[in-house]
Amino acid sequence: MDDGTRPASPQLLLVGNVHPLHEGEFVFDAMLSGWRDQQVSRGLTASTVGRRLQFIRRFANYCDKPPWQWIPGDLEDFTVHSMSREKRLAKSTIRAYQATIRIFCDFITDTRYDWIAQCQSRFGCAPQQICHEWNTTAHIAEYEGRPERRALTYDELDAFFRHADERVEAIVQAGKKGGLAALRDTQIFKTVYAFGLRRAEAVGLDIADLRPNPAAPRFGGYGSLDVRWGKGSNGSGPRRRSVLALPEFDWAIDGLQQWAELGRMRVTNERRGALWPTERGTRVSLRYLDDRFAELRDGAGLPKELSLHSLRHSYVTNLIEWGYSEKFVQDQVGHLYASTTAIYTSVGSDYKNRVIAQALSRVYGENNARL
Questions:
Q1: Pair (112, 175) in one structural domain
Q2: Number of folded domains in the chain?
Q3: Distance between CA 54 and CA 28 in Å, rounded?
Q4: Nearest-angstrom CA–CA distance, 316 and 333
Q5: Ranges under pLDDT 70 in the chain
Q6: Residues of the domain holding 194
Q7: What is the pLDDT of residues 46-96, one digit of tens each?
Q8: Which residues pair with 160 in a beta bridge?
Q9: Dist. CA 285–CA 175, nearest whole Å
C-alpha cells in the first residue's frame, strides 16, 4: 500500500479513512479468517480448523466482548463455569478448550501479524495472551480418564456376546423385523473386540478394507483389516494402519465372513462401499452403536460404567495376558506411545499369578517356587 500501512489479513484492507459500519465484528471476523488461513497453511484438517473457529466464537459470546478486551479473568470464569455444570466436563476437555484459546491468542499477539497495531489504533486497546501457567490446567497424571473405565472380564465378555446372539435368535424365531439389523450390530461388536477398534474406525470400514494375510492363509480374505480412519493427532487427520487377525478370535472372524458374504448382501446389492450398511443405504452412526451397546449391556446385566470403548480395553488386556509382546499390541491398536497402551491394560489376577510363579521358578527353581 502506498501509505505504508500493512494489512493484518487479506480480509482487513484499509481504504483511506473508511471504516465498516460494525467495525468490531468486522475486525473479529478478519482475525478468524486470518487464523483459519494460518491453520490451513499448517496442514490441519478442515474439521479441526472448523471446530476451533466455532469454539472461539463461543468463548467470545460467553465473554460478551471482543478478543482485544479479553483478560485472564475471562478464561478463569469460563473454566469455572464449564467445570460447574451438572455433567462435569473431563479435565482433558477443559485443557483442550484452554489450549485452543491459547493458540488463538498467540496468533493475534504475534508481531509478525498486525493485529496489535490495528486494534490499538482502532479501539485504543490491544489483545493479550490470557492463558498462563497459573490459570490453565496442567497435564500431570498419565491417565485422566474416569476410574470406572476398564476392560471386561472373561465372564462379562461371554455374557455380553451370548446375550447379543440370543437376541438375534429371539427376533428371528418371533418372526419380527429387525433380525438382520441385530445380526449386523452383534457382528460389529465382535469385530470391534476381535480387532481392537475404536468406534469411528469400525463405522468407517468398507468391504475393500478386508484383506488377506499371506502369513495366515487360514483366514482367507479376512486376515487383516485396513483401518483408514484411525485417530490422528494435532489436527493431522486420520492415521492408517493394518490390524492382523489373530487365532484367538477365529470365532469372530468366521462371523465377519458370514456377514460380508451373506448377511450384507441381504441389505444392499452394492458389492462395494460400507461394510455395515443400514436399510437406507447409509452407515451406522456412532450414536447408534453407543445406544445398541448400552441396550445389550443392560440386557446382559453388566455394570453401566462399561462402554463400547471397553471392548478395545479388553482387546489390549487380553493380548497382553495371552503373551503377545507390548510392541505388537501397540502396533495393532495404533498407539504412538507404549505408555498409552499400558493405560489400556488391566490384566487379571490369573495372569499376575502366572508371572509371579514364573519369576519364583527362575530365582528358586521349579521345586522351591511352590514353597
A1: no
A2: 2
A3: 13
A4: 8
A5: 1-20, 139-148, 233-236, 337-371
A6: 154-309
A7: 888 999 999 999 999 999 999 999 999 999 999 998 888 777 777 888 989
A8: none
A9: 26
